[in-house]
Amino acid sequence: MGVGPWVGDWPQDDRLDPELLRDGDRRNVVDAYRYWTVEAIRADLDTRRHPLHVVIENWKHDLNIGSVVRTANAFNVAAVHVVGRRRWNRRGAMVTDRYLHVEHHPDVDDLVAWAQADGVPLWGVDNVAGSVPLETARLPRSCALVLGQEGTGLSDEAVAACGTTLAIGQFGSTRSINAGAAAAIAMHAWVRLHAGHS
Ligand SMILES: C[S@@+](CC[C@H](N)C(=O)[O-])C[C@H]1O[C@@H](n2cnc3c(N)ncnc32)[C@H](O)[C@@H]1O
Questions:
Q1: Using a 6 Å cutoff on CB, does residue 138 contact ligand 1?
Q2: Fold of 50-194
């Protein structure tokens, strides 16, 4: 995967990393960012982030957060917000957390304070009583999708903080799907409505 050492005249571009030019770039990045420094990629992504935030509760070191961060990077969301424990397992993120903003909130009250200050409506994602189908929901362009963690799902405080909560349709025998998979489906529902239509 990737490209080998740079061939030809040495490029004069501050965004390019001399070590990657010398040794080759084997990272999992799109071709447009080959040889770019992490800082330059992040700064470029900052110029065109979507007004979508993703929130996940982390009361018990949820292993899905890495996967959520990786998908959030792919869809270039504004930020991922971790509520609860600050530390989370980075393995599933495959270093994508270096390219986006990951904010921490010690509790739901702190999340709500941020959302109100920035004018970002909180939309829950869980199959709790009163949830409406994600498939037919009209998600606003600017919003935060709030996911719960494996086992417990969204906390009561988080459900109460969300104006609407969305359920992903299921047709098999299991009660719920993996939180990382649910986050990807919910983010893509937003993408289908709003990405490329700014
Ligand atoms: C494994 S679920 C656990 C909780 C779930 N309320 C239950 O009844 O089992 C973990 C998280 O994944 C997301 N999730 C899983 N299945 C979902 C579905 N069908 N609709 C919406 N969110 C879902 C939610 O964010 C949920 O908090």
A1: no
A2: Alpha/beta knot (3.40.1280)
